[in-house]
Design a protein that fits this description.
six-stranded mixed beta sheet, about 200 residues, globular, 5 helices
């Protein structure tokens, strides 16, 4: 259904043009609040505070809907004062109070990120319904080979360029055969510098 598909997307559009971008990292989940084109505010509040408070109910909803667990960092739009951070933290605590799973708000970090933890009660929605892409390994990125002109060989590694991608062939210690993999962008850049 459409709701299920929307629950698997990275970007959640909020009323007024703001959005949430939800990502999973190796050890945590991140939720980034983006202002979009919204420039209106409620009387007596700053734009950042107004948009952050408007995002709080959807953040709580997405955490429950996606069954996010472990460490969750929320990058709210930068606020001017600690009083504004306190208001947003209180609103988030209230929005998460109906969650049947244990959630602990640890407060804002020195970088202004809201840190919270949520007990793991099973796999997330993404873990239940998807598997990593065989081409990108779940990163969502592949090297664009047509932009990299490279032909470097060395005893253990061969980097080959085609119109579609850049492949790294590593010589297998056991058989001496080469196994091919898409090269990480940083490796390709490193090899370009070392072997001009």
């Amino acid at each position: 259904s459409q709701q299920l598909q929307e629950a698997l997307t990275r970007k959640v559009i909020l009323p007024g043009g703001a959005s949430l971008v939800i990502d999973k990292r190796e050890a945590l989940h991140t939720i980034d609040v983006n202002s979009g084109g919204n420039v209106t505010t409620s009387e007596g509040t700053t734009l950042a505070l107004s948009q952050n408070l408007a995002a709080v109910p959807e953040i709580a909803r997405q955490i429950r809907l996606r069954n996010l667990s472990g460490i969750i960092l929320v990058d709210f739009i930068d606020m001017d004062t600690t009083d504004e951070q306190t208001q947003v933290a209180a609103a988030l605590e209230e929005a998460l109070s109906s969650d049947r799973t244990k959630v602990v708000l640890h407060g804002f970090t020195s970088l202004g990120l809201m840190e919270l933890t949520r007990k793991r009660t099973g796999p997330s929605l993404r873990e239940m319904l998807t598997k990593p892409c065989k081409h990108c390994g779940g990163t969502g990125c592949v090297v664009v080979g047509s932009r990299i002109h490279l032909a470097v060989q060395d005893a253990d590694v061969v980097i080959m360029r085609s119109d579609d991608d850049v492949s790294v062939a590593r010589k297998c210690v056991c058989s001496g055969d080469h196994t091919y993999d898409v090269a990480p962008f940083q490796l390709v850049r490193y090899v370009e510098r070392v072997f001009p």
